[in-house]
Design a protein that fits this description.
Radius of gyration: 21 Å
Number of strands: 0
Strand content: under 5%
């Protein structure tokens, strides 16, 4: 049991990331298409095999609430990445727009706020990747897009099951986190931050141990925030290592954004996927979901290649 826990929770994510990194280094287009089709098949068969009883009794379960909705938003990332890597025709654009629409419908029906926000982030970055920022009129397009996204967010929160669910959870959680009502913005994740911080303060260096929050809290529920997982369960040691990894990735993306203008569309799309994952980590844990580490591996591999290209171009200019 201990060996399986160590293999699954500690080594498997890194193996997945390394395999994705090396495979993407060899054939980027092939890996992107294979991952995209795999996610699409998983989502299709997952939803088509659900019965009405499943939907009614498991709407908040891991299968529907987490796996399927998270899969949906990663489909957007890989399909957007495929689209921006080469010039595509109008039919490809229509297919991509269709995927975005279907994904948002699925997310709204399920009522998953974190994935809905992640989908909006990916949509904004995708549009950024296709817009010529040297044109002043495009800045008005971007501002309009941001305003439309914010308006759409509030409309959906006020008029759909997602908004009703979040309002109920915020009121419920605000009654259990005395003195920290501001955490209710995280909905049903508020108690995870509240009690996770208290446990961290008791074991600040090494934490309480991976996946021990469920046992220590008595709720039998895993911490639904990756940042608090690292802080509470892995302590300052694990949190520092994890944040160092994210900061390193962020700095590499920024460097490529500054230096490689030739492939700016691809870099913007990669940045969108990275920001999307950072956002979801606020209300979801990621170490049990291999797709996060597939995405990390792809991003690292592609920015490594883009960084090399930009440095090679700059050396050629100097010579």
């Amino acid at each position: 049991m201990f060996f399986w826990f160590v293999l699954k929770s500690l080594f498997m994510p890194f193996v997945v990331m390394l395999v994705s990194f090396f495979e993407c280094s060899k054939k980027q287009d092939v890996l992107i298409i294979v991952v995209f089709l795999s996610l699409l098949c998983y989502l299709f068969f997952g939803y088509t095999t659900l019965t009405i009883t499943d939907i009614q009794t498991r709407a908040e379960s891991e299968s529907v609430g987490n796996l399927y909705s998270i899969t949906s938003v990663f489909i957007l990332f890989f399909s957007s990445l495929w689209f921006v890597r080469k010039k595509r025709n109008m039919s490809s654009l229509l297919i991509l727009l269709g995927l975005f629409i279907i994904t948002f419908v699925i997310i709204i029906v399920i009522g998953t706020r974190k994935v809905f926000g992640a989908g909006i982030i990916m949509l904004i970055f995708f549009i950024f990747s296709k817009v010529n920022l040297k044109s002043i009129k495009n800045y008005f397009l971007i501002i309009s897009l941001v305003v439309l996204s914010i308006t759409g967010w509030y409309y959906i929160m006020e008029n759909t099951i997602m908004g009703v669910r979040m309002e109920y959870l915020e009121k419920q959680q605000s009654q259990t986190i005395h003195g920290a009502q501001w955490l209710s913005v995280f909905g049903d994740r508020a108690t995870h931050y509240y009690y996770g911080w208290k446990m961290f303060m008791q074991h600040p260096i090494t934490g309480i141990g991976l996946q021990n929050y469920a046992n220590k809290s008595g709720t039998k529920i895993a911490l639904h925030t990756e940042y608090m997982v690292q802080l509470c369960e892995c302590g300052l040691i694990g949190f520092t290592l994890y944040m160092s990894f994210l900061i390193w990735m962020g700095k590499r993306l920024i460097r490529v954004l500054k230096n490689n203008f030739k492939n700016i569309s691809v870099t913007i799309c990669l940045t969108g996927g990275f920001v999307m994952m950072l956002f979801m980590n606020f209300t979801a844990w990621s170490y049990n979901f291999p797709i996060y580490f597939v995405c990390y591996g792809v991003i690292i591999s592609m920015i490594k290649k883009l960084d090399y290209e930009s440095s090679h171009i700059s050396q050629s200019v100097v010579v």
